[in-house]
Each structure stands twice: as C-alpha cells, then as structure tokens.
Amino acid sequence: MDLVHSALQGDRLALARLLTQVENETDEGRAALIRLFPQTGRAHWIGVTGAPGTGKSSLVNQLTLHYRREGRQVAVLAVDPSSPFSGGAILGDRVRMRDLAGDPGVFIRSMASRGSLGGLAQATAAMAQVFDAVGYDILLIETVGAGQGEVDIARLAHTTLVVEAPGLGDDIQAIKAGILEIADILVLNKADRPGVESTERALHSMLSLAHPTRRVVRHHGRWETVNEAALPTSEQMWIPPIQRTVATEGKGIVELIGHIAAHAEHLRRSGEWAARERARLRSEVEALLQKALMARFRAAVPQAKFEAVLQRVHERSLSPWEAVQLLVDGRWG
Amino acid sequence: MTGKKIRVLVAKPGLDGHDRGAKVVARALRDAGMEVIYTGLRQTPEMIAEAALQEDVDVVGLSILSGAHMALVPRVLELLRANGQGHVKVFVGGIIPDEDVPRLKELGVYAVYGPGTSTEQIVRDIREAVEGVVPQA
After folding, report:
1. With contact defined as beta carbons under 8 Å apart, do B50 and A103 qualify?
2. pTM for this predicted structure
3. Of the candidates A17, A89, A101, which has its C-beta nearest B36's C-beta?
4. Dist CA A183 CA A237 (whole Å)
5. Which of helix, strand or coil describes residue A48?
6. Nearest chain A CA: its distance from B81 CA (Å)
7. Which among A23, A88, A101 is the nearest to B33, CB-wise?
8. Helix, strand, or coil here: B51?
9. DSSP 8-state symbol, A83
10. Residue B84: closest CA among chain A residues belongs to which residue?
C-alpha cells in the first residue's frame, strides 16, 4: 500500500500509519515527507501552550468544535511528556476531547515528547507537515504543560496562544522572560475562578511594559489603551490581546476565534506570515544540517581515536575546546 | 529517544465509573517504557476504534467492570477489523466470569485478566504479543 497516495486520498488509516513512520523517523517516513513537502504551507498552525492544568486540552476541544461549525478540517497534535526514566508516557489529552469523537473532519494524534525539552517532540514539526499536506486547514498543536522555558512552539506556529489561569503566580512571574513573551494571544482560562481580576491586571501590566508604544490604563473600571505617540510602526505592531475563557462551558471561545483570525490577517498584511515561514524553514534546514554533518563527521573519525581524545580530556591533559579543534582539524593522530 | 515504541490505547467502554484499575495498568505500562493513550471513562466501541485508528496503536486494553463485556468486546473487535486494524492486539481486564473467557478468546481477545493479576504479567504478555506483530505498510 502506498501510504502517501492513500493519505492524500483521505484514507485515515494510511494517514495514521504515515504519522507513525514520520514520528519514528524511519526511511519510509522521510521519503514520505520529501514527497509531501510541496503540498505543505496551506494550513494555519496554531500553538496552544501554558502551565499544566490551565485547560489547554479543553480549550483545544472547544476551538475544534467551533472551527468544525465553520466547515474547516481540523487536525490536533497533542504532546505530553515522556518519562525521563522509562521512556514511557501517558498521553491523556484525548480525555478532554471526547466531544470530537465521530467527526470525520477531525483527526487527533497524541505524541510523547521522547526526550525533547522545548515542550514539543522532535518529530512534531514533521508530523504537522503531514497534516498540512493532506489538507487539514487548521492545525492545533498542544504542547506539554510548559513552565517558563518551553518556547519551541513559537518557532513552529503561526499563532501562539499562551493559556493562563487565575492563581498561578504574581506579577513578577508575568515579567520574567520566557513563555509570556511568545504569546500572540493570551488566554485567561478558568475565568470563573476567584483571582481572575488580579491575574488579568498582572498580564496587562506585563503587556504595557513589553509594548511601550501603547499604554494600558484602568479607567472607571474598564481597561483602556492610550496611544502615547501615533507612531507609524504602531500600526504594524501586534499587541497580544487578553481573552477570558471558561473552556469547560465554551465561554469566550467565539471571541478567541476572532482574535486568532485577526492575528492571521495581521500576519498576512504585515508580511510576517512569510517571515515566520522563512524563519521556521531556515531553522528546520539548519537542524537537519547539524544532524547530517554530525553523523558524517562521526562516521569519518575512527571510534577508537575519538575515545582516545575523550580520554585525554578526562585526564585533563587536553581541554574540551582543544579537543574539538583537534577533531575538526582532523589531527586525531 | 526515537524509534519504535509500543503504543497502547487504554479505554473504559460502558457505563461503570471505576477507572482505578485502568489507571494502575496505564501507569505500569508507562513504567515499562510504553506510550499509553488514555481515553477516560464511558467510551463507546465506536470511540475506541476511532481513537485506536488515529493513534495507530499496537494494543487496545479494555477495562470493563459492568458485566457488559459480551456486548462491548465483540463490537470493538468488529470495528477494529472493519477499519483495517485486525492486527491490533486486544486485552480485556476487569470482572469477567470464567465461563466467558474462552468465548472472548475465540473472538480474538489476546488475554483476559481478573482481579489480582500482576502488572508484570500484563507487561510481559503485551511485549510478547507485539513483538510477533509485523507492521504492515
């Protein structure tokens, strides 16, 4: 059976098997990616990230339901962590996505992070390309429960949603580097919980610090934005909106979909859509190049010689920097 | 950490709400290095077969304590085959009367586990079952 051909015809079993080949980085998977690549570049890739328990999966469930009402074909890639000890994983995101069962316009695939540290798995980008190529127009990528440094999703997705919930931290957390910086849209989920006001305030103050062309003030209990200087660049600039949601009840989802559409429109108008695509493809090529060069290099250096150099480093008679210089110059003896 | 991993769907079909056993097994399989897709309570056979397909699993584990196994299990097997997933190994755990076990195995269930089964046994059986599977492309 030709998996690529069948998957392009809409065969779901072929698609599932193709995804496995790509995830396991087999030769067949790579050959499939090469064939599918010209068909990619059509889907809107939307990343959903945030701390564990903020409601990412429930939000993905609701977003998918709404996109389906618009007649869009939706693929979901949900990443959960692999155990650093056993390499096994429990992938539990489907538990919150049971509303999507039985809909042939939805395809959900769970994947384990398999040792990657950036909140995604190594094969996530490649699997996303498969979905893109076979005709899904909305691709929701849910990261592992992310803390502060798991920001790979921002390099992958066109639009990144960072999901927050009340009561997870004070405003110092909000101004730390990392996850909030990558948000194109901030989602304040569980907005029916106590503490939502102070969390929203912290997020607002973070945004006003990050985007000094606009100032957000509280005026008669309403948040308002003041343009300090009508700089021509401020029109080009995307200020991440903050959207309250209660994903379990479907509240705020229509508004969130509106923000996502506005962001896509902004990316296309400003030329940033193409810029992001170019940056992503560049880093993909660089990563593959790094891997290939490393493999070629290791194949060229006899294992015993490599070990001998390592041994000298271990004995402190050679520093790691000198060792690398020696190996790169081919002077391993 | 790339390369082939055993993928297992752990599902609870039917209406009973007791998922402790399923969670214990899921955890044990995780600790044995498998990737476990956990789908939660009250799954219909259709939902289970669909998830098994999308996730391209090697194994489906069904936990049933409601007594409805003779209705639910054959339906899951039938749907898996209809979807082209006849190669998927199906395991059943829960409260299954002894006299039903031979019939379930005849239908194609790989193994049936009652209360007190060790998780080591389950891990061993799954490994054995999957290592015999030749992935068909």
Report:
1. no
2. 0.88
3. A89
4. 14
5. strand
6. 12
7. A88
8. helix
9. P
10. A13
Beta-carbon separation of B55 and A16 below 8 A = yes
Q: Where are the alpha helices (DSSP H) in A176-271?
A: 196-210, 232-236, 253-270
Q: Domains of chain B: which residue ranges?
A: 7-129
CATH classification code of B7-129: 3.40.50.280
Using CB atoms, pick whichever of A13, A98, A108 lies closest to residue B83.
A13
Model-level ipTM above the cut of 0.85:
yes
**Chain B interface includes A11 (CB < 8 A):** no
**Which residue has 């379930």 as its token pair?**
B104
For residue A41, give both structure tokens. Answer: 């570049």
What are the chain B neighbours of A91 within 8 Å (beta carbons)? 35-38
CB distance B85–A17 less than 8 Å? no
Contact criterion met (CB < 8 Å) for B51 and A20: no
Cβ pair A195, A166 in contact under 8 A: yes
Burial class (CB in 10 A: 0-12, 13-18, 19+), B61: buried
User: For the segment B27-58, what is each residue's pLDDT rounded down to a tens digit?
Assistant: 999 999 999 999 988 999 999 999 999 999 99
| Residue count of chain A | 333
- The one-character DSSP state at A248 is G
Average pLDDT over residues A104-125: 92
Domains and CATH numbers, chain A: 1-35 (no CATH), 40-288 (3.40.50.300), 301-333 (no CATH)
- Residue B59 tokens read as 């194994």
DSSP state of A94: G
- Asked whether the beta carbons of B36 and B43 are under 8 A apart, the reply is no
State whether B47 and A28 contact (CB < 8 Å).
no
Read off the tokens for B27: 């955890």
Cα–Cα nearest to A117, from B1, B72, B45, B74: B1
